Amino acid sequence: KMDDDDDIPQLSSHTLAALQEFYLEQQQREGMKTSQGFNQYSIGSIEEDWQLSQFWYSDETASCLAKEAVLAAGKGGRIACVSAPSVYQKLKEQDGGDFSVCILEYDRRFSVYGEEFIFYDYNHPLDLPENLLPHSFDIVIADPPYLSEECLQKTAETVKYLTKEKVLLCTGAVMEEQAAKHLGVKMCKFIPKHSRNLANEFRCYVNYASGLD
Protein backbone atom coordinates (compact mmCIF):
# COMPACT_ATOMS: atom_id res chain seq x y z
CA LYS A 1 0.00 0.00 0.00
CA MET A 2 1.28 3.38 -0.94
CA ASP A 3 2.00 5.79 1.83
CA ASP A 4 -0.79 8.39 1.79
CA ASP A 5 1.66 11.22 2.21
CA ASP A 6 3.37 10.51 -1.08
CA ASP A 7 0.86 12.25 -3.29
CA ILE A 8 0.86 15.45 -1.25
CA PRO A 9 3.21 17.84 -3.07
CA GLN A 10 5.98 18.80 -0.70
CA LEU A 11 7.06 22.41 -0.61
CA SER A 12 10.79 22.95 -0.48
CA SER A 13 12.01 24.26 2.85
CA HIS A 14 13.02 27.46 1.08
CA THR A 15 9.48 28.05 -0.25
CA LEU A 16 8.03 27.21 3.14
CA ALA A 17 10.27 29.71 4.87
CA ALA A 18 9.34 32.38 2.32
CA LEU A 19 5.65 31.65 2.78
CA GLN A 20 5.90 31.82 6.53
CA GLU A 21 7.70 35.12 6.26
CA PHE A 22 4.98 36.44 3.96
CA TYR A 23 2.21 35.42 6.36
CA LEU A 24 4.08 36.89 9.26
CA GLU A 25 4.48 40.20 7.48
CA GLN A 26 0.80 40.16 6.62
CA GLN A 27 -0.14 39.48 10.22
CA GLN A 28 2.13 42.27 11.37
CA ARG A 29 0.55 44.63 8.86
CA GLU A 30 -2.93 43.65 9.99
CA GLY A 31 -1.80 43.93 13.60
CA MET A 32 -0.38 47.36 12.94
CA LYS A 33 -3.66 48.42 11.38
CA THR A 34 -5.67 47.37 14.41
CA SER A 35 -3.21 48.81 16.91
CA GLN A 36 -3.30 52.16 15.14
CA GLY A 37 -7.04 52.21 15.65
CA PHE A 38 -7.30 51.25 12.02
CA ASN A 39 -9.97 53.17 10.19
CA GLN A 40 -11.66 51.40 7.31
CA TYR A 41 -11.78 54.71 5.44
CA SER A 42 -8.13 55.51 5.81
CA ILE A 43 -6.00 55.62 2.72
CA GLY A 44 -4.27 52.31 2.29
CA SER A 45 -7.09 50.26 3.78
CA ILE A 46 -7.66 49.45 0.14
CA GLU A 47 -4.32 49.28 -1.63
CA GLU A 48 -4.02 50.94 -5.02
CA ASP A 49 -4.32 48.56 -7.97
CA TRP A 50 -2.10 49.70 -10.82
CA GLN A 51 -3.75 47.35 -13.26
CA LEU A 52 -6.88 49.43 -12.84
CA SER A 53 -4.72 52.52 -13.39
CA GLN A 54 -5.22 53.59 -9.79
CA PHE A 55 -2.82 56.02 -8.20
CA TRP A 56 -3.65 57.35 -4.77
CA TYR A 57 -2.95 60.97 -3.88
CA SER A 58 -0.53 61.79 -1.14
CA ASP A 59 -2.21 62.29 2.21
CA GLU A 60 -1.69 66.03 1.98
CA THR A 61 -3.22 66.32 -1.50
CA ALA A 62 -6.21 64.13 -0.60
CA SER A 63 -6.84 66.28 2.51
CA CYS A 64 -6.52 69.50 0.56
CA LEU A 65 -8.96 68.35 -2.15
CA ALA A 66 -11.40 67.01 0.45
CA LYS A 67 -11.32 70.34 2.29
CA GLU A 68 -11.90 72.22 -0.95
CA ALA A 69 -14.84 69.94 -1.81
CA VAL A 70 -16.52 70.53 1.56
CA LEU A 71 -16.14 74.30 1.24
CA ALA A 72 -17.39 74.28 -2.35
CA ALA A 73 -20.35 72.03 -1.53
CA GLY A 74 -21.46 74.27 1.33
CA LYS A 75 -23.59 73.37 4.33
CA GLY A 76 -25.51 70.15 3.82
CA GLY A 77 -23.84 69.82 0.41
CA ARG A 78 -23.65 66.71 -1.71
CA ILE A 79 -20.28 65.63 -3.09
CA ALA A 80 -19.64 63.00 -5.77
CA CYS A 81 -16.19 61.46 -6.23
CA VAL A 82 -15.82 59.98 -9.71
CA SER A 83 -12.79 57.63 -9.84
CA ALA A 84 -11.25 59.62 -6.97
CA PRO A 85 -11.32 57.17 -4.05
CA SER A 86 -8.53 58.72 -2.00
CA VAL A 87 -10.52 61.98 -1.77
CA TYR A 88 -13.61 59.99 -0.83
CA GLN A 89 -11.68 58.23 1.93
CA LYS A 90 -10.49 61.58 3.30
CA LEU A 91 -14.03 62.95 3.25
CA LYS A 92 -15.22 59.92 5.20
CA GLU A 93 -12.58 60.54 7.85
CA GLN A 94 -14.26 63.86 8.63
CA ASP A 95 -16.87 62.52 10.97
CA GLY A 96 -19.92 64.59 11.62
CA GLY A 97 -19.24 66.85 8.65
CA ASP A 98 -22.37 68.52 7.34
CA PHE A 99 -22.28 67.00 3.87
CA SER A 100 -22.96 63.71 2.12
CA VAL A 101 -20.77 61.92 -0.37
CA CYS A 102 -20.97 59.21 -3.04
CA ILE A 103 -18.20 57.30 -4.73
CA LEU A 104 -18.49 56.23 -8.36
CA GLU A 105 -15.77 53.69 -8.93
CA TYR A 106 -14.94 50.75 -11.21
CA ASP A 107 -13.12 48.87 -8.47
CA ARG A 108 -15.71 46.76 -6.67
CA ARG A 109 -13.55 46.53 -3.54
CA PHE A 110 -15.06 49.88 -2.68
CA SER A 111 -18.46 48.24 -2.29
CA VAL A 112 -17.46 47.88 1.39
CA TYR A 113 -18.70 51.45 1.64
CA GLY A 114 -22.26 50.22 1.15
CA GLU A 115 -24.95 52.52 -0.18
CA GLU A 116 -22.49 55.27 -1.06
CA PHE A 117 -20.65 53.06 -3.57
CA ILE A 118 -21.88 53.17 -7.15
CA PHE A 119 -20.25 50.85 -9.66
CA TYR A 120 -19.02 53.04 -12.50
CA ASP A 121 -17.47 52.27 -15.87
CA TYR A 122 -16.54 55.37 -17.86
CA ASN A 123 -17.26 53.47 -21.09
CA HIS A 124 -20.94 53.71 -20.10
CA PRO A 125 -21.03 57.25 -18.72
CA LEU A 126 -24.78 57.47 -18.13
CA ASP A 127 -25.34 53.92 -16.98
CA LEU A 128 -26.16 55.13 -13.46
CA PRO A 129 -28.72 54.06 -10.87
CA GLU A 130 -32.09 55.78 -11.11
CA ASN A 131 -31.78 57.28 -7.65
CA LEU A 132 -28.80 59.35 -8.83
CA LEU A 133 -30.80 62.30 -10.03
CA PRO A 134 -29.42 64.67 -12.66
CA HIS A 135 -27.72 67.80 -11.28
CA SER A 136 -28.10 66.61 -7.70
CA PHE A 137 -24.51 67.19 -6.51
CA ASP A 138 -23.11 70.53 -5.38
CA ILE A 139 -19.65 69.53 -6.58
CA VAL A 140 -18.21 66.62 -8.52
CA ILE A 141 -14.55 65.67 -8.14
CA ALA A 142 -13.31 63.56 -11.02
CA ASP A 143 -10.01 61.90 -11.83
CA PRO A 144 -10.40 60.02 -15.12
CA PRO A 145 -8.39 56.78 -14.97
CA TYR A 146 -6.60 57.34 -18.30
CA LEU A 147 -4.98 60.32 -19.95
CA SER A 148 -6.88 60.06 -23.20
CA GLU A 149 -9.40 62.40 -24.73
CA GLU A 150 -11.91 59.55 -25.06
CA CYS A 151 -11.72 58.80 -21.33
CA LEU A 152 -12.00 62.48 -20.43
CA GLN A 153 -14.91 63.05 -22.80
CA LYS A 154 -16.89 60.11 -21.41
CA THR A 155 -16.10 60.98 -17.79
CA ALA A 156 -17.18 64.54 -18.59
CA GLU A 157 -20.62 63.28 -19.64
CA THR A 158 -21.03 61.71 -16.21
CA VAL A 159 -19.75 64.81 -14.43
CA LYS A 160 -22.08 67.14 -16.35
CA TYR A 161 -25.01 64.87 -15.59
CA LEU A 162 -24.28 64.78 -11.85
CA THR A 163 -23.22 68.31 -11.00
CA LYS A 164 -25.38 71.36 -10.39
CA GLU A 165 -22.44 73.39 -11.67
CA LYS A 166 -19.16 73.00 -9.79
CA VAL A 167 -16.48 70.68 -11.14
CA LEU A 168 -13.05 69.84 -9.73
CA LEU A 169 -11.06 67.77 -12.21
CA CYS A 170 -7.66 66.18 -11.61
CA THR A 171 -5.79 65.00 -14.65
CA GLY A 172 -2.54 65.42 -16.52
CA ALA A 173 -1.19 68.84 -17.48
CA VAL A 174 -1.27 67.63 -21.10
CA MET A 175 -5.08 67.49 -20.92
CA GLU A 176 -5.51 71.25 -20.36
CA GLU A 177 -7.13 72.02 -23.72
CA GLN A 178 -9.43 68.98 -23.67
CA ALA A 179 -10.46 69.78 -20.08
CA ALA A 180 -11.48 73.28 -21.14
CA LYS A 181 -13.27 71.93 -24.20
CA HIS A 182 -15.26 69.17 -22.47
CA LEU A 183 -15.84 70.63 -19.02
CA GLY A 184 -15.12 74.34 -19.25
CA VAL A 185 -12.53 74.09 -16.46
CA LYS A 186 -9.31 76.07 -15.96
CA MET A 187 -6.04 74.97 -14.41
CA CYS A 188 -5.38 75.97 -10.77
CA LYS A 189 -2.06 76.83 -9.17
CA PHE A 190 -2.40 73.94 -6.72
CA ILE A 191 -0.38 70.92 -7.83
CA PRO A 192 -1.70 67.54 -6.68
CA LYS A 193 0.90 65.03 -5.51
CA HIS A 194 0.58 61.25 -5.54
CA SER A 195 1.81 58.83 -2.92
CA ARG A 196 4.11 57.41 -5.60
CA ASN A 197 5.66 59.69 -8.15
CA LEU A 198 3.99 59.54 -11.53
CA ALA A 199 5.75 60.21 -14.79
CA ASN A 200 3.05 62.62 -15.93
CA GLU A 201 2.66 66.05 -14.43
CA PHE A 202 -0.74 66.24 -12.75
CA ARG A 203 -2.87 69.33 -12.30
CA CYS A 204 -6.22 70.40 -10.88
CA TYR A 205 -8.85 72.20 -12.92
CA VAL A 206 -12.00 73.99 -11.73
CA ASN A 207 -14.91 75.96 -13.21
CA TYR A 208 -15.57 78.12 -10.13
CA ALA A 209 -13.64 80.42 -7.77
CA SER A 210 -11.84 77.82 -5.63
CA GLY A 211 -9.35 77.93 -2.80
CA LEU A 212 -6.81 76.09 -4.95
CA ASP A 213 -5.13 79.19 -6.35
UniProtKB/TrEMBL annotation:
Keywords: Cytoplasm, Methyltransferase, Transferase. It comes from the Eukaryota. This is EFMT1 methyltransferase. One of its GO terms (biological process) is methylation. One of its GO terms (molecular function) is nucleic acid binding. PANTHER family: EEF1A LYSINE METHYLTRANSFERASE 1. Pfam families: N6-adenineMlase. Its main location: cytoplasm. GO terms for cellular component: cytoplasm. The gene is Eef1akmt1. It is found in: Cytoplasm. It catalyses: L-lysyl-[protein] + 3 S-adenosyl-L-methionine = N(6),N(6),N(6)-trimethyl-L-lysyl-[protein] + 3 S-adenosyl-L-homocysteine + 3 H(+).
